[in-house]
Design brief:
The protein is mainly α and about 100 residues long. Helices cover about 45% and strands about 5% of the residues. The protein has a single domain, classed as Winged helix-like DNA-binding domain superfamily/Winged helix DNA-binding domain (Arc Repressor Mutant, subunit A, Orthogonal Bundle).
């Protein structure tokens, strides 16, 4: 496994319940500017095998990337079960729930 993949996995696992991070922020923390798509690939291919909390990773603007009927509802339900407020359209207030933000 590549070192960059190991870093991404460790960073995703570090996002605690009740918090979210973005594909972009995980990539930046892993030293991969512009690597948001790589984070998405790791989530897609290794979430089950590595036990990743995939549902805690969302778009930088606060939106769930999965489409309605294609996973949005499940991801929103998992986030809500951890206390994260998710709008009916699948948006999260990053100023309140993003890892490293004040107030949490």
């Amino acid at each position: 496994m590549l070192e960059s993949t190991r870093k991404i996995i460790a960073l995703i696992k570090a996002v605690p319940p009740g918090r979210v991070s973005s594909y972009r922020d995980i990539a930046l923390a892993a030293g991969m500017p512009g690597g948001a798509r790589q984070v998405a690939r790791v989530l897609h291919s290794l979430s089950g095998k590595e036990g990743l909390p995939w549902h805690r990773i969302i778009r930088a603007g606060g939106g769930i990337a999965l489409p309605p009927g294609g996973g949005l509802e499940l991801q929103a339900a998992l986030l809500r079960s951890e206390g994260v407020e998710v709008s009916p359209s699948g948006r999260v207030d990053m100023s309140r729930f993003a890892l490293g933000q004040a107030g949490k």
